Amino acid sequence: MFEPNSPHDRTPLAEERQGSVFTQEVAVAGPAKGQFYIESYGCQMNFNDSEIVASVLAETGYQPTSDIDQADLILINTCSIRERAEETVRKRLQGFKKLKRKNRGLLVGVLGCMAERLKSKFLEEEKLVDLVVGPDAYRDLPRLIEKADDGEKGLNVFLSREETYADINPLRLDQNGVTSFISIMRGCDNMCSFCVVPFTRGRERSRDPFTILAEARDLFENGYREATLLGQNVDSYKWENPETGEVVHFAQLLEMVAGVHPALRIRFSTSHPKDITDEVLETIARHHNICKYIHLPVQSGSSRILEMMNRTYDADWYKGRIEAIRRIIPDCSISSDIIAGFCSETEADHQETLDMMRYTHYCMSYMFIYSERPGTLAARKYPDDVPESVKKRRLSEIIELQHELSASHNEADIGKTYEVLIEGDSKRDDQEFKGRNTHNKMVIFPKADGLKAGDYVFVHITSATSATLRGQIVRPD
Ligand code: 5AD
Ligand code: SF4
After folding, report:
1. Terminus-to-terminus CA distance in the chain, angstroms?
2. What is the C-alpha to C-alpha distance for residues 472 and 454, in angstroms, rounded to an integer?
């Protein structure tokens, strides 16, 4: 099975990942039209979008394939968050040239953030591309494919204020059958100065909560035991019932989804420090099945840099939110996104970031070098003036500190017992299971008779590295 990067890595919303493809045969509706191969890059939202695309295509008679040589249509769902993510996609596209020479009828489509950012320029720059489709235009794919079949290039990068794909049941083609993702909103209104997402994914809009509930129930009935609610900023989820005017905020949505079944675990990503409310924290604390884990990106520990980043909070505000989490959910793990070398960052600013990491004691962080993105507020306003070598050194100091923090977190778990949801066989040894605890930590342990993926077990932790915990199954205390 082709699994370069499992969709079950809990990467944050805009973390770039290398391509992953669907691998499962599915029943399709309508007359057979051909086979499509889809490869996804970037954040979890993108991977979830590919499942929406697969659903739209299957409805019109296309069959997914994991064998690129068999495909009549290759789709590549792209990421623009950092320059390197775009370079990876461009290289990958070059690799398709050979396939096009072999199969004259083969169509190549570019979806997602790069399609949105570059629009028709993509068609000019990359001659082998037949379709360019932005994140809000996936319903239009069948029409665009037909056009491209007739030799006309297809382009739709219209950004919508309403599209949430609420009625589309994503085609679940991921492999473990236990954990899955539900998009609850799209777009972002925050305008962090470094970030291209508001330009590529458009205005923020929230999905009808009843369709979210229906999707969660459907997942549970199909054997899934964990659903991660996805949004660029889940704390600003807000849906107004058009008939009654009643408003559903994120805390209420969490409560509703937690009520689907006590054995359906709920996670969510990503939270924004300015928006995460005590009500949300209290809801998490009240429900056993809402995981005690919050991904709360700080980006920088320096208030001056945070202001330039337009994050709309300062270091003290962030610390206040950490205190609220500790008070309301005493046993909660916290992770972060951190950017090294943002415009004008001094050594003192960098030290403040390291101090913030020590203060919060992150269990895990996604750490990046600042990459200037065309069109963003920072690109227009501030010179990208931290030398590459300084950015790299600061990033390696951040990584080193995180490594220490993760190791000390995991060491402190030795001797504790956690409820673990079994996700499948461990990668290295099929005599062992892997699963995660409430804190999103991977736990490896020897198998026992009668247990399978999707079961919950209690595991006593006996050893740890900075990446994983190991233990033995025990009876609950
Ligand atoms: N350069 C580096 N990192 C970035 N991120 C977003 N935009 C950029 C950029 N231009 C990081 C932020 C965000 C994460 C998903 O990606 O840390 O939280
Ligand atoms: Fe980008 Fe900020 Fe929106 Fe996250 S919250 S997607 S970093 S603009």
Report:
1. 39
2. 18
142 and 209 fall within a common domain? no
How far away, in angstroms, is 435 Cα from ligand 1 center?
Answer: 28
- 463 and 374, same domain (yes or no): no
Q: Give residue-wise pLDDT tens across range 12-36.
A: 443 444 555 554 445 555 556 799 9
Report the domain count for the chain: 3
Q: How high is the pLDDT of residue 184?
A: 98
Domain contains 84: yes
- Select from 145, 134, 136, 198 the least CA-distant residue to 168: 136
Give this prediction's pTM: 0.93
Instruction: Indicate whether 261 and 207 sit together in one domain.
Output: yes
Distance of CA 110 to the CA centre of its chain: 19
- 246 is a domain residue: yes
Within-domain flag for 258: yes
Nearest CA owner, ligand 2 atom 4:
232
Same domain, 37 and 130: yes
194: nearest Cα among 300, 49, 346: 300
pLDDT tens, position by position, 76-88 = 999 999 999 999 9
Strand order in the sheet with 265-269: 179-183, 226-230, 265-269
- The SS3 of residue 244 is coil
Answer yes or no: is 192 within a domain: yes
- 3-state class (DSSP) for residue 269: strand
Q: What are phi and psi of 466, to 5 degrees?
A: -75, -15
| Ligand nearest, relative to CA of residue 365 | 1
Atom of ligand 1 nearest to the CA of 369: 2
Cα 233 to ligand 2 centre (Å): 7
Residue-range definition of the domain harbouring residue 428: 417-474
